[in-house]
Structures are given as C-alpha cells and as structure tokens.
C-alpha cells in the first residue's frame, strides 16, 4: 500500500469482507444546506484503507462490524459517495487532507474555552422524521444534559414531559437519541462575562469535530473545543485565562 491517506473522524464499521468496507459517518451536503449532513453509509475498497498504527496519529478503527474509530482513507477513497451522491463530510476541503502516514501537513489548532451559555439550541432529526429545534435551557429539556458528539453517532437529549410530548414521543420518554445538524451555543466566556458570542459546534471552521460537555443545571459553565475562529466568535483569545490551547493531529491538516 503506497501513497498518502486522510483521517475521517469518526466512523462506525458496518460490513467488512476481503474486498470492501462499509462504514457509517457524517455526510457532506450536496446543496450547502447543513440539514443534509446526516449519518450515511459509504463503501470503499479495502485496498484504499490504511489499517496499521501510525506514529503520532490516533489509532485506526478496528476492521470489524460495530467498531467506532478513525478511518484512514486514500485520496481516491475520499471521493466515495453514497448511491444518491452524498460525499463524506469534509471531502474536497482542507478539513480532510491527505497527509498520513508521514504526517506531512500541519495539525489543526484547537483549544478549550469555558462558556456560560444563555442558549443551547439543537437542530436535528429523530430517526429520519421532520427536523425540529430544541432549546436545552428551556422548559422542553431536563436540567442536566451530557452532549457527546463524534460524527458517527447521534446525541442523547434528556427531556421533560413537555418536551417528550412536543417530539411526539409520549409523556414518559425522558431520553431520546437524535441526529443533530446544528448545535448552536450562545453565551459569554467565563474569562469575560461582559461579552456575548455564538458558535455552531457542527461548523468545522469554528469548532472541533468532536465535542463532549455536560452540565447539571441550566446556565452552568461548559467547556467547548474551538478553533481560533471559534474563540474569536466569543471575543476570546486562545490560551488566555480558562482556555487551554493545543495541537490536535486528529483534526484538520
């Protein structure tokens, strides 16, 4: 196997045989509408996948159904689309740049910023149904939430009886998994509560491809993985105060 490979973060392996691998991950959009960036299945030849460990890189996903992890695809495999023409998210952009196994390209600079949210709006779809928007700091959502997003799975939302009814789940469905197309955080950085900003965590120009934050009550501070553009949206400087900055080789080149 020769050439360079790009890392898709993250995928879930669905099928494997001696010729092809089918995996599910976030798709790109054909029209530019973020609502088209759904979880979709892609199939590419085994010969176009790098499966060996790479020094300085996250480990590759195991080649077995159900495994979730990072998939290293050749430049040709990055052009893989679904049967109806949807590309892999980031294909054809600097987000996925062929650079492994020699890691010739630079890593994306990400940092953590603590934000006091005044609004957290999730836009998404429930098992392919109509799109909805849910304010996590409003009466339809429970006080405590844990949002873990990696692009391979949906996110779990904790609902009140009112929220469950609004999503047509019945009054007793207190938790639901949805596929988000936007997670918009509005609020003020802890280091300067006098300013307000807003970021869509699914906008790869402003946020990392993976996010994991939780809170036990509304308006409690949360920590976000942001790019320099994401810091600017909150009028913050990477590396200042509560923000820590570091290189993530697992993100963009």
Question: How would you characterize this protein structure?
Answer:
By secondary structure, the protein is mostly beta strands. It has two helices and 14 strands, in the order E-E-E-E-E-E-E-E-E-H-E-E-E-E-H-E. It starts with a strand and ends in a 5-residue tail after the last strand. The relative contact order is 0.19.
How would you summarize the topology of this molecule?
Layout: E1 5-16, E2 20-26, E3 39-45, E4 49-50, E5 68-74, E6 108-125, E7 131-135, E8 145-149, E9 155-158, H1 161-166, E10 175-189, E11 197-200, E12 211-215, E13 222-226, H2 228-233, E14 244-248
Antiparallel strand pairs: 1-2, 1-5, 2-3, 4-5, 6-7, 6-10, 6-13, 6-14, 8-12, 9-10, 10-11
Could you give the order of the helices and strands? EEEEEEEEEHEEEEHE
**Percent in strands:** 35-45%
Tally of structural domains:
2
The helix/strand class is mainly beta
